[in-house]
């Protein structure tokens, strides 16, 4: 069975729980209660071995490393890279400037040949059909 790596916004964002309910394929959730060297090693391994790497960005994003990861993967492995930017995360919106920047990232990732979505339903439909 196909497997997807669930990368992207952490920081209390609940998008993973919402998406998991929609998936009919296996998944790897890198979010753990105790982030340690073993968890980091497993994340790196699964990012390389999963059939798909998904990066979902929400307004709860506090760091930018997921943006670097999706651009990197869209260059190295575009056919297995999936990007989704959720403008609404239940409580807050991105600023206008963040929206413009994230739209530019989405265009760059798509131009590299990766799949880009704006909803978890779209992501799930794509992954479940793969």
Question: What keyword list fits this structure?
Answer:
5-stranded parallel beta sheet, Rossmann fold, 5 helices, globular, alpha/beta, 130 residues
Assembly classification: single chain
Give the topology string: H per helix, E per strand.
Answer: EHEHEHEHEH
What profile does the largest beta sheet have?
A: 5 strands, parallel
Q: State the CATH architecture.
A: 3-Layer(aba) Sandwich
The CATH homologous superfamily: Toll/interleukin-1 receptor homology (TIR) domain
- Basic shape: globular
**Through-space gap between termini:** 10 Å
CATH topology: Rossmann fold
Sequence stretches where pLDDT stays below 50 over 5 or more residues: none
Tell me the number of strands: 5
Short summary of the structure?
By secondary structure, the protein is α/β, with parallel strands linked by helices. The protein has 5 helices and 5 strands; from the N terminus they run βαβαβαβαβα.
Task: Provide structural commentary.
This protein has about 130 residues and is α/β, with parallel strands linked by helices. It has a single domain (about 5-130), classed as Rossmann fold (3-Layer(aba) Sandwich), CATH 3.40.50. The protein is built from 5 helices and 5 strands; from the N terminus they run βαβαβαβαβα. The protein has a 5-stranded parallel β-sheet, with helices on both faces. α3 links the parallel β3 (about 50-55) and β4 (about 80-85). α3 runs parallel beside α4. The model has no long low-confidence stretch (mean pLDDT about 90).
């Amino acid at each position: 069975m196909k497997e997807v790596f669930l990368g992207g916004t952490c920081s209390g964002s609940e998008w993973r729980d919402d998406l998991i309910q929609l998936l009919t394929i296996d998944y790897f959730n890198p979010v753990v209660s105790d982030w340690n060297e073993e968890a980091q090693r497993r994340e790196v391994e699964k990012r390389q071995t999963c059939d798909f790497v998904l990066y979902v960005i929400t307004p709860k994003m506090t760091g930018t490393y997921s943006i670097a990861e999706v651009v990197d993967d869209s260059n190295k492995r575009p056919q297995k890279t999936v990007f989704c930017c959720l403008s609404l995360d239940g409580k807050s919106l991105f600023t206008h400037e963040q929206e413009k920047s994230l739209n530019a990232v989405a265009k760059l990732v798509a131009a590299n040949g990766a799949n880009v979505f704006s909803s978890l339903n779209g992501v799930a439909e794509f992954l479940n059909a793969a």
